[in-house]
Amino acid sequence: MYDTIRYHVIPPAFVVFFTGVVQYLAWSGRGASVDFSALWGNEFAWRFLGVSFAWAYVSLLVPSRKCKGPVTDFGQVPEYQDNGTLYYWATLVTFVLYNFFVDKDLSLKIYDNFPQILGALNTCALLLCVVLLIKGRLSPDVREKTVMKKFPIAYEFYSGKELHPRLLGVDVKQFTNCRFGMVAWQIFILAFFFAGIKREGFNYGFAVNVLLQSIYVAKFWWWESGYFWTLDVALDRAGYYLCWGCLVWVPVLYTFSSYFMVAHPPLTSPLISLLIFFVGLSAVIINYAVDREKEIFRKTGGECEIRGEPAKYIDVEYVDEKKRLRKSKLLISGFWGTLRHLNYNFEILAAFSWSCVGWHHGLAPFYYVVFLTGLLVHRVFRDEEKCRRKYGKYWEKYCSIVRYRMIPYVF
């Protein structure tokens, strides 16, 4: 029964539900009536996406430093462009200058055509998922010995076939997750903020909402090379869940609080907005500090100091898919010696901070926080399942030392 639900029921149900919810959010966020013509986009939407896709694609072709992700169990070593920070700032500055000096109504056009942009994005993302499924079945980049081939086609479409596929000379996940998804998050919230100023004037709560998100997104680009070691990239395959999610779900849900605030301006006072800003900023900084601690530990092979003392860790051994004995280390000092996923707590707090400036308008500004909490809790269990299967007794030892996941004495 469990396998039937997991592999046969949930994938098609999620594809239908989430694909439809995208357009609902686009309409409900501004209180507009349903317009099914938006499902196919319009001229502005397709031109906007054409430029965005081309800009993201070119960023992955220009000569730059390279960085690598973790070696897969079947011996593949993914390689990525390491020019994310430059790409982010070039995109941000170009958008702002174009918005103020070339087309002063650009932000309003993006806001007014947002349902059409999402409709066009939906079409592109679903087509990409079909291409990835066909490619994974007929011409994978790496032939791997995996049980994935036994799964039903609906599950393969949803979860993906290949771990690190490349199309047209670029890594698919770096294109969808980073070069489009994360930049779209930044560009859309800025566009919504500028549109809100044109419609209602400057709003302190709205400014805090966008500023905190911008700091969080900028932090991601500073840390992009570390992102390639996270579950999103190292474990999840390129399919609907990940690629459609970053091309469509990120631009609509992650930006929703800002989109909603154009038509529903926050009512928080300047003082309360400032206090919320400092809480959110602290959460982003600590979230980065936690992630940075593990990144330094990984890059130095454990030969580093954490809080002035040599890093403590557990030496582990495991057998990969090719029956080769490998070694690794599990960090048990610093932040990572207190809770297994302390970084998730501060990620949720940061999202809550930039959302709560709109609390006067009910639950809508908190949609992303609710989703993020569920996503991260689910990710905790996925990570533990992977680690328990991979490390065995060493993982049990780690859990006996770092006993709690996110909340001391509770969870």
From TrEMBL:
Its EC number is 1.3.1.21. It catalyses: 7-dehydrodesmosterol + NADPH + H(+) = desmosterol + NADP(+); cholesterol + NADP(+) = 7-dehydrocholesterol + NADPH + H(+). It is an enzyme of class 1 (oxidoreductase). Signal peptide: none annotated. GO terms for cellular component: endoplasmic reticulum membrane. PANTHER family: 7-DEHYDROCHOLESTEROL REDUCTASE (PTHR21257:SF38), DELTA(14)-STEROL REDUCTASE (PTHR21257). This is 7-dehydrocholesterol reductase.
